[in-house]
Amino acid sequence: MTETRTHCPYCSLQCGMTLAREGRRLEVRAWPEFPVNEGALCRKGWTATGLRGHRERLTTPLLRDRATGELRAASWDEALDLVADRLRALQAAHGPDTVAVFGGGGLTNEKAYQLGKLARVALRTSRIDYNGRWCMSSAASAANQAFGIDRGLPFPLADVEDTDVLVLVGSNLAETMPPAARHLDRLRANGGHVVVVDPRRTPTADRADTFLQPVPGTDLALSLGLLHLLDAAGAVDEEYVAARTTGLDAARRTAAAWWPERVERVTGVPVAELRVLAERLAAAGRVTVLTARGAEQHAQGTATVLGWINVALALGMPGRPHAGYGCLTGQGNGQGGREHGQKSDQLPGYRMIDDPAAREHVARVWGVEPASLPGKGLSAYELLESLGTGSRALLVFGSNIVVSAPNATHVAERLAALDLLVVADLVLSETAAMADVVLPVTQWAEETGTMTNLEGRVVLRERAVAPPDGVRSDLDVIAGLAARLGSPGVFATDPEEVFAELGRASAGGRADYAGISYDRIRAEHGVFWPCPTPEHPGTSRLFAASFATPDGRARCVDVDHAGPAEPLDVAYPVHLTTGRVLAQYQSGAQTRRVRELPDDGPFVELHPMLADRIGAHDGEPVVVSTRRGQLTAPARVVATIRPDTVFVPFHWVGANRLTHDALDPMSGMPEFKVCAAAVGLDTPSLVPRDGYSTTERAS
Ligand code: SF4
Question: Ligand 1 in contact with 114 (CB < 6 A)?
Answer without folding.
Answer: no
